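Quick one: co-fold with magnesium ion.
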Amino acid sequence: MFEYAPAPESRSIVDIAPSYGLFINGSFDEGKATFKTVNPATEEVLSEVALAGPEDVDRAVGAARKAYEKWSALPGAERAKYLFRIARIVQERSRELAVLESLDNGKPIRESRDVDLPLVAAHFFYYAGWADKLAYAGFGPDPRPLGVAGQVIPWNFPMLMLAWKIAPALAAGNTVVLKPAETTPLSALFFADVCRQAELPPGVVNIVTGAGDTGRYLVEHPDVAKVAFTGSTEVGRQIARSVAGTGKRLTLELGGKAANIVFDDAPIDQAVEGIVNGIFFNQGHVCCAGSRLLVQESVAEELLSSLKRRMATLRVGDPLDKNTDIGAINSAAQLAKITELSEIGANEGAERWSPPCELPDRGFWFAPTIFTGVTQAHRIAREEIFGPVLAVLTFRTPDEAIEKANNTPYGLSAGIWSDKGSRILAVADQLRAGVIWANTFNKFDPTSPFGGYKESGYGREGGRHGLEAYLA
Ligand code: NAD
Ligand code: MG
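Sure, here it is.
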């Protein structure tokens, strides 16, 4: 083996202001209280951001409500022009945005640059194309927008979740108030500047920063007509309760515990790459991560030894280094959760393994980890860890694989690895999951609907289906 020289992306490409206000009605104004956002790889404070209270949220919803009159009355072709413009500006400024996202979130620059940002632009391009064709989307001849959408997003894909929420809402003629997660507010605030650059009419997009309370003020505001939430199942439940009976429309994208099923006829090397991508992509902070590996007993030994060999080559460290595979855990709180569940896994009797791996002294880090000898009753097989931790179970027959895969309160995604097309189709048919990948994993496309069954939530984002949530 040879050593790689460091290959850092320059952080000076992006300007970060020492403080940011709230983006309401087309301009930034000061909030009264503030909070800090840090770089999880170094614990350095990046900026101080306004903490929106109930009056701030009320002003933002008021601005969106006022902007709605004109925005919803624009011909779709005119709204499309703004969305195309936003998509192009995101492309032009994607290097700045990728560095900013990696700094605030901890994800490797290779992912923010090659996955997140291209998908963000693709979503705006895709929904720009729908804006003047809503009458042909299959929701009646004259579908109408709903009003103000209140949107709350998590920290794992800050900019991509923003695109998933804002692009279809605007294409359909709604206006929005969006609240980014408290550990990753900076790319949404950068996006506010993109909206200004695109000369989007003031009030069409408003960004309010803050923590859970700010999110609660937003979803409970009486002038919000539609709530879109991505985050934990626990908060999703609270929101469902508070929205019930109000007449507001609601979509929830919640957690997952996806099965990645490897049959004995699967190409082992490809499957290993898919398993690594399934659980270690974005530090495992992925709701649809392949966090339960189900491998057929006859190939388990061979597959696990290849997987361990591959894991030993994963590079953990500086998110801005272009050679980094696994970056920083997003926050101290998330690191504590991953550490705790992993300890529970070991105490419950599963066998823990990580490759030798030196972790930086500062910041939040967790080595890629697998557990073997896991049973369905173990907490690490049932609960979402949301980190780089894989639970490995085995099976003997396809029926057993299906039964184990479906034995979960979640139903967001699944993966199937087999050389046999008929087997893939037969198994996919019986899995209760919103997205099923065959001989690949964690592939996303704006034309493809995404969403869950059971405790993974309801409603679909992406594709033609994603428009339905924003139209009456
Ligand atoms: P979280 O639910 O605590 O936070 C998500 C967002 O909701 C944040 O912006 C937060 O400030 C806000 N929030 C918190 N309490 C709120 C309340 N009472 N009312 C309104 N908003 C509130 O989740 P987290 O721990 O920050 O993120 C990790 C979780 O998110 C994981 O469990 C993961 O499964 C889930 N997630 C799901 C998806 C998906 O697409 N299904 C995507 C990403 C993350
Ligand atoms: Mg941060």
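If it helps, The mean pLDDT is 97.
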